[in-house]
Write a structure and sequence with these properties.
homodimer; about 350 residues; alpha/beta; 18 strands; metal-binding (chains A, B); ADH-like_C (chains A, B)
């Protein structure tokens, strides 16, 4: 079958690889209906994280179950399923605590074996899914083609934006600022609106992303960054800053922007993968009682909550996909996102 | 009148200073009944923070109102009052948000004028209290002498321990670890118990403090620190770490201990004044979804909630005072706390 393999920075190839096979009774084989490129895939693409040897890549996919191991009971052949961007049993202590990204038996897609990750990635024709009962969420009923993009966001970006909002404690009437206008930031706007925020300030300099943020529920757009951006947020929040700030980038600058945009006693919910490990300024946090909460989003646990709103069209996270390509053109998908020609690219095997 | 003045590191003197006078209509003059030395007072005492010129020191006191300005309505002459360790109007946007330590019109006791702080400190015979309506909390009814220590803790340490627990989100059934066995850490044990924690692990190496922690509600005591301490906490919490960790010290080591003692998805509530500004390891926090929340405790807003339990004896935070001295011996009070001969020293003018 065909699957995407990264060989080195900026060297993405779609190659013939062995078909996946059931190797434990807990496995399922999923025929991929749609996959996509994640902002975090751009790190190895750009060489920010090194690629030691060629390996499969990709971690967001939806599809149809083709085969299941003998111990699998929660999913059946023919089920339409959503895979989160990681593997989890959904039963261990950490999963029960809502932190399935820290599953005691789970792991990650697409790494090389030295990382202890599962060898399959999501950007391919099929994927072997370990711990299928825990990992996969079944979509009830027939799936219409126009629902595909929205369902695919539940494998990562919509759940991740939701995690930013949940981590920040967004609730009815809150003022919320969102730092980052990528797919996750835009989904964080959806999540804040869905959780009842009264004022949502999207920080974005790109007209088309600003427009999408407004469609998703942003009441204000702030194009400025740095001190000017902080000042604009203050002006929009009674002079004190936002109750909740959703950090969806992961750089030192974006985290600083987020922390300084929060009001005293406010909370920053962050989901941007820390790029190079910016440390948090504890004295600044201490003096202002601004909290920081979040991390790698346990999206598996959010699928059941968000799925009805995606199926009904009450929320439209699928609109973050502004380019669709066949799997064979995965290299162009990476380039388009790297050059910011696309917010997020959907791949069809 | 007499009041404590710090001249330089390890140079604490009780001197005659001018009696305070009402200078604005919002002021009150409070005759101090009891004051105390705070762990954070030891910073200038030890020279960790420089003392540029002699100034008043102290910020925890209770007493009786002797005079009020013409605009004061909430407190009357003769009222027994608790002053928090800062001044606040209790009406601004930040105070209404529960963050009175960030009061838009407030300030701090005992600094020199260059810091914009109010010149009075709490370790004296009388204090001019600005913004008296917002700052002071009235204790109803007659106060018995044995209630004095408990009431005094509401000016700082009991409210600060409570803030650690509130910031960490302690609730019924939680497992809680408390890092720090000073007065604040011990009060954090009280707060965790009061909020319904099922398992409370006090980290302490001092037998008398361990005993007090147990009296306050600790179910377990861990004497180990570093990796051994973390391992002991894990053993007591099903192998994953504590739901909530209360950091009550403020060093890099204690914050690290706290973060690594929390389970994935857990929350660290921190109130230890950051000593030298330890930065927080964002990558570690991100990977484990451990949040960090807290800061300088807005104790003014907690007094009304905690006061009934102090007056009834339901909680006994006054036991953290293990030494009582006359104000004239303030220098010895500092020395006793510096040398850890005392947990916390109560001063009587």
């Amino acid at each position: 079958m065909l699957a995407t393999v990264i060989h080195a920075a900026r060297d993405i190839r779609v190659e013939t690889v062995p078909d996946p096979v059931i190797t434990t009774g807990d496995d399922a084989i999923v025929k991929v209906v749609a996959a996509c490129v994640c902002g975090s895939d751009l790190w190895p693409y750009r060489g920010v994280t090194p690629t030691h040897e060629p390996h499969r890549i990709g971690h967001e996919f939806i599809g149809v179950v083709e085969a299941v191991g003998e111990a699998v009971t929660a999913v059946q052949v023919g089920d339409f399923v959503i895979a989160p961007f990681y593997v989890c049993d959904n039963t261990c202590a950490n999963c029960r605590n809502g932190v399935s990204t820290s599953c005691l038996n789970g792991g990650w897609w697409g790494g090389d074996d030295r990382n202890g990750a599962f060898a399959d990635g999501g950007q391919g024709e099929r994927v072997r899914v370990p711990l299928a009962d825990g990992t996969l969420a079944v979509v009830p009923g027939p799936v219409r083609d126009e629902q595909i993009p929205g369902l695919l966001t539940l494998s990562d970006v919509m759940g991740t934006g939701h995690h930013a909002a949940v981590s920040a404690g967004v609730g009815p009437g809150d003022t919320v600022a969102v730092v980052g206008d990528g797919a996750v930031g835009l989904c964080a706007v959806i999540a804040a609106k869905r959780l009842g925020a009264a004022t949502i300030i999207a920080m974005s300099r790109h007209p088309e992303r600003q427009a999408l943020a407004r469609r998703f529920g942003a009441s204000h757009v702030v194009a400025e960054r740095g001190p000017e951006g902080i000042e604009r947020v203050r002006e929009l929040t009674g002079g004190i800053g936002a109750d909740r700030v959703l950090e969806c980038v992961g750089t030192k600058e974006s985290m600083d922007q987020a922390i300084r945009s929060a009001r005293p006693g406010g909370m920053v919910g962050y989901v941007g993968v820390p790029n190079g490990g910016p440390e948090l300024p504890v004295r600044q946090l201490f003096n202002t009682n601004v909290g920081v909460n979040g991390g790698v989003a346990p999206v598996r646990g959010y699928i059941e909550e968000l799925l009805p709103d995606v199926l009904s069209g009450a929320i439209e996270p699928g609109l973050v996909f502004d380019l669709e390509l066949p799997l064979a053109e995965a290299a162009e998908a990476y380039a388009a996102m790297d050059e910011r020609r696309a917010i997020k690219v959907l791949l069809r095997p």
